[in-house]
Amino acid sequence: GENVEQHPSTLSVQEGDSAVIKCTYSDSASNYFPWYKQELGKGPQLIIDIRSNVGEKKDQRIAVTLNKTAKHFSLHITETQPEDSAVYFCAASYSTGNQFYFGTGTSLTVIP
Amino acid sequence: GAGVSQSPRYKVAKRGQDVALRCDPISGHVSLFWYQQALGQGPEFLTYFQNEAQLDKSGLPSDRFFAERPEGSVSTLKIQRTQQEDSAVYLCASSLAAGEETQYFGPGTRLLVL
After folding, report:
1. pLDDT of the residue at B36
2. What pLDDT, on the 0 to 100 scale, is given for residue A95?
3. Which residue of B has its CA nearest to A103?
4. Cα separation of A42 and A26, whole Å?
5. Which residues of chain B have a pLDDT value below 50?
6. What is the DSSP string of A84-106?
7. What residues of chain A lie within 8 A of the CB of B40, using their CB?
């Protein structure tokens, strides 16, 4: 099956700085890559996703890039704010079956 | 509209007890997923329903775990003879249609087995 690795496991940034989280996947058949934000005691919330026919997608302060050849994708958060502090998970899935394979998470702390 | 809801939010069970966890997906969503999230880890897939049909149960860790969705809406995950290693957050997610990729997660049920 698919194996998703995520780095770093923890990340601290000053408010206003950028944060980058990276993930790699093992199965070239994966073609959908969502990113989820999970706050303490809550379920994961989708923040952005990208499909394999797209190299980059942006939504306000959040962007995701995908390199299919290298099998890695990254989350970029610009102008970070304290409310961005949470655990972020990347995931990968195939076009059929729809099971998500999650990374191990990145705990992001934005220091005011 | 209402999102995915799960109940109970917290459950404490003594080792050996049976538990039942409920998931109410978003109304009209065809696909329903259960995941298990251990402390400090990402969610891991347990099982998948399309309407009332359980199409994939490859992630269920043992035959003590059983899931059902008899009418194609509400789903129940049952764990028999709970063990300490079953302690985790159990997440339910739903998506609009088969092949629709976006999954919407509920808040989870935190299970603690003593």
Report:
1. 98
2. 65
3. B42
4. 29
5. none
6. G-EEEEEEEB-SSS---EE---E
7. 104-105
